[in-house]
Design a protein that fits this description.
elongated; about 70% helix; alpha+beta
Length: about 400
C-alpha cells in the first residue's frame, strides 16, 4: 500500500517537529534545575544555613556560566540539525543573551514542550483505550457495565487530541524559531557592526590588491617598455653619431626620433614613479618624499618626524597613500596655486595616526568639491579610513591636512 505524497510529507514534518520538541526538553529544563541549585546554595550561604564560604560559591557559579555557553552551543546544533535553521555563533562575552535564553526563556519553552509530549502520550493512551479494555479479563468487563460507551468517548477524545498534536507541535516549533532568532540571533546593531567589520576587511583587501597591481604594472613597465625605449634611444643615438654621410633630411628625422625617444623615456619614468616609486619600498617614506621635494618646480620645505622607536614601519598601503597625497598636492600647487613661491610639507606620526600637512603661500581659493583631483585625493584617503581636511580662503594661504590610521 503506497502512502500519498501529501500524507507522507505531513508525517515527515510531524516527526521532525516532535523530534525537535523532544530534544528541547532536557536542553531547556536542565539549565533551570542548575539555576535553582545555584540560587539555593547562595540563599543558604546568605542565611547562614550552609557552612560553605562565599568564596566556595565561585566555582559553581562559574560552572553555571560555562554550562550556559555549552547549552547555547547545543541549541545551535539542535536548530541546525533538525530544522535547518542556522543561528549565529555567539561570543563567550555575550553572556546576557545566553543567560536570558537558557535561564529565563528556555524553562518556559521547556514546560510547553513537556506539556505537548504529555498531551501526545495521553492522547495515545486514550485513543487505544478500547484495546486496553478488551485485553482485560471478561469478568472485569461484566462487573463494569457501560465501559463500551466510556471507552468510545475516550477514544474519540484521544483521536481528536492526536489530530491536534501536529498543529500544536508545528506552532511550538515556529515559536521556538522566532524566540531563538530574537534572543540568540544577531540584533540589528550587531548585524550592522558585523557588516561594517566585513566591509572594512574587504575594503582593506581591495586596497592591498590595488596596491599590488600597481606594483606589478610598475615592474612590467620598468622591465619591459622602459628597457625597450632605452634600447631604441641608444640605437638612434648610435645611428646619429655614426651615420654622418646621410642626407640632411634623414639626419633630421633620426635626430627628431632620438629626442622623442628620450622624451618618452622621461615621461615613462614619471609614470612609473607615479604608479609606485621603488624608493618607497626600499628606503621608506622619508626618502621617497625627499625625492618628490627635490623634483618639485618650487622650493619645498620638508619635515618628516617618524619616531625611530616604532617596532615596525607604517603599513605599505598607508605609506603609498601619504606619498601620493604629497605628490598630487605638490603637482596641484605648481599648476594651479596662483603666485605660490614656496610649499611646506610636514609628516608626523602620533601614536596610531600619521598626519600629513601640505601648505603653500599662494592666493588660495581651492575647492575640493569642484576639482576632480582634490576629490580623488579625498576618496583615496577615505579608502584607508583616513580624514581629509582643506582650508583655502581667497587670498591664501592654502593648507591640506590628512590623517591616516596606523594601527600598531
Amino acid at each position: 500500500m503506497t502512502v500519498p505524497p501529501r500524507l507522507r510529507r505531513a508525517l515527515i514534518r510531524m516527526r521532525r517537529d516532535l523530534a525537535f520538541v523532544a530534544a528541547g526538553v532536557p536542553l531547556h529544563l536542565v539549565p533551570a534545575l542548575l539555576s535553582w541549585w545555584a540560587i539555593s546554595l547562595l540563599a543558604d550561604t546568605v542565611n547562614g544555613v550552609s557552612s560553605e564560604a562565599p568564596v566556595e560559591l565561585i566555582a559553581p557559579l562559574t560552572l553555571l556560566v560555562i554550562a550556559g555557553y555549552g547549552f547555547t552551543e547545543a541549541q545551535r546544533r539542535r536548530f541546525r540539525a533538525i530544522c535547518g535553521v542556522e543561528l549565529p555563533r555567539l561570543r563567550f562575552t555575550e553572556g546576557k543573551r545566553q543567560l536570558g535564553y537558557n535561564w529565563l526563556v528556555g524553562p518556559l519553552l521547556g514546560v510547553l514542550e513537556l506539556l505537548l509530549l504529555a498531551l501526545l502520550l495521553t492522547a495515545l493512551v486514550a485513543a487505544l483505550v478500547l484495546v486496553w479494555v478488551w485485553l482485560v479479563p471478561p469478568q472485569w468487563r461484566r462487573g463494569h457495565p457501560g465501559y463500551t460507551t466510556t471507552g468510545t468517548y475516550l477514544t474519540v477524545l484521544g483521536l481528536a487530541a492526536l489530530a491536534a498534536v501536529p498543529g500544536l507541535a508545528a506552532g511550538l516549533v515556529r515559536l521556538e524559531i522566532l524566540v531563538g532568532r530574537a534572543v540568540l540571533g544577531v540584533s540589528r546593531s550587531d548585524e550592522l557592526a558585523r557588516r561594517v567589520e566585513d566591509l572594512t576587511v574587504s575594503r582593506a583587501g581591495a586596497v592591498d590588491a590595488a596596491d599590488a597591481e600597481r606594483r606589478r604594472i610598475e615592474r612590467d613597465l620598468h622591465d619591459g617598455a622602459q628597457q625597450r625605449l632605452v634600447s631604441l634611444a641608444l640605437n638612434l643615438g648610435l645611428a646619429k653619431a655614426t651615420l654622418t654621410d646621410l642626407p640632411p633630411e634623414a639626419q633630421q628625422v633620426i635626430d627628431a626620433a632620438h629626442r622623442e625617444a628620450k622624451d618618452a623615456i622621461e615621461e615613462l619614468n614619471h609614470l612609473v614613479r607615479g604608479l609606485h616609486p621603488a624608493v618607497l619600498d626600499e628606503l621608506g617614506l622619508d626618502a621617497a618624499l625627499s625625492g618628490l621635494a627635490a623634483r618639485a618646480p618650487l622650493p619645498v620645505r620638508l619635515r618628516v618626524d617618524l619616531p625611530a622607536e616604532l617596532p615596525q614601519r607604517t603599513a605599505p598601503a598607508v605609506e603609498a597613500v601619504a606619498y601620493f597625497v604629497v605628490s598630487e598636492a605638490l603637482t596641484n600647487i605648481a599648476k594651479h596655486a596662483r603666485e605660490a613661491t614656496r610649499a611646506e610639507v610636514t609628516v608626523t606620526r602620533l601614536g596610531e595616526i600619521l598626519r600629513v600637512v601640505i601648505a603653500d603661500d599662494g592666493m588660495g581659493g581651492a575647492d575640493p568639491s569642484k576639482g576632480s583631483g582634490l576629490k580623488g585625493l579625498a576618496q583615496r584617503v577615505r579608502s584607508v579610513d583616513g580624514t581629509f581636511r582643506m582650508s583655502s580662503p581667497v587670498g591664501g594661504p592654502t593648507m591640506m591636512s590628512v590623517e591616516l590610521p596606523c594601527p600598531m
